[in-house]
Amino acid sequence: MSLADSISKTLVPIHKEGYPFIAIAAVLTIILGWFWSPLFWIGLFLTGWVCYFFRDPPRVTPVKDGLIVSPADGTVCLMGSAIPPRELDMGDQPMMRVCIFMDVFNCHVNRAPMAGRITRVAYKAGKFVNAELDKASEHNERNGLIIENDNARIGVVQIAGLVARRIVCFVKEGENISAGDRFGLIRFGSRLDVYLPQGTKPQIALGQTMIAGESILANLKDEEAGDIVARVS
């Protein structure tokens, strides 16, 4: 393996959504450094952090009917019954909700928790309170998806946080998506809520650290996972 290959395999890819922010940070670094050299090093550090924030590493997703994987990197901050957002039109009965909080150091690329067809995409403007709070599900800016397949119908909601000011969704209604596929991104610090059928038993604990596209949230078939095939995405 050549040195160039070694370097390319070591460096983590950056999502294209981050390119404008990296360019802005780099230009500001040069301008500030022109006036006062210590500002250059501060700007260089911040530019490096922006690159780090928009990293988009490949993930190895377990593929098996019934498995629900985490849609986000972060920490499980809430778990329990809750009524889905009204705009998703999933009814007014409680569903099992798992909430994953992403801080500014987590990878913010969001991935599909299961394979299926996207039957609804619904955006709602709102506030920007701390995404770790329960009320963020109701009051904050958010974008929700419904994913359906032959086995289940689940909701996934991107929620803006205290410093997040932009929710990006890459998919549209009617598209098919595979588990672990990228479907969106949130800038900078936010939360993902997953609404599962009532009665689902999550295979996680509060405070657990999740990896998008890899960590298993639940098994809707309520059986031993057994042999699992994985795919890289």
Automatic annotation (TrEMBL):
The record marks 189-190 as: Cleavage (non-hydrolytic). Is synthesized initially as an inactive proenzyme. Formation of the active enzyme involves a self-maturation process in which the active site pyruvoyl group is generated from an internal serine residue via an autocatalytic post-translational modification. Two non-identical subunits are generated from the proenzyme in this reaction, and the pyruvate is formed at the N-terminus of the alpha chain, which is derived from the carboxyl end of the proenzyme. Its cofactor is pyruvate. The chain crosses the membrane at residues 21-54. Keywords: Cell membrane, Decarboxylase, Lipid biosynthesis, Lipid metabolism, Lyase, Membrane, Phospholipid biosynthesis, Phospholipid metabolism, Pyruvate, Transmembrane, Transmembrane helix, Zymogen. This is Phosphatidylserine decarboxylase proenzyme. Pathway: Phospholipid metabolism; phosphatidylethanolamine biosynthesis; phosphatidylethanolamine from CDP-diacylglycerol: step 2/2. It is an enzyme of class 4 (lyase). Its EC number is 4.1.1.65. Heterodimer of a large membrane-associated beta subunit and a small pyruvoyl-containing alpha subunit. The modification Pyruvic acid (Ser) is found at residue 190. It catalyses: a 1,2-diacyl-sn-glycero-3-phospho-L-serine + H(+) = a 1,2-diacyl-sn-glycero-3-phosphoethanolamine + CO2. Its main location: membrane. InterPro entries: PS_Dcarbxylase, PSD-A. Pfam families: PS_Dcarbxylase (PF02666). The gene is psd. It is found in: Cell membrane. Belongs to the phosphatidylserine decarboxylase family. PSD-A subfamily. The keyword Protein biosynthesis does not apply. Binds 1 pyruvoyl group covalently per subunit. Catalyzes the formation of phosphatidylethanolamine (PtdEtn) from phosphatidylserine (PtdSer). The active site is at residue 190. It is a peripheral membrane protein.
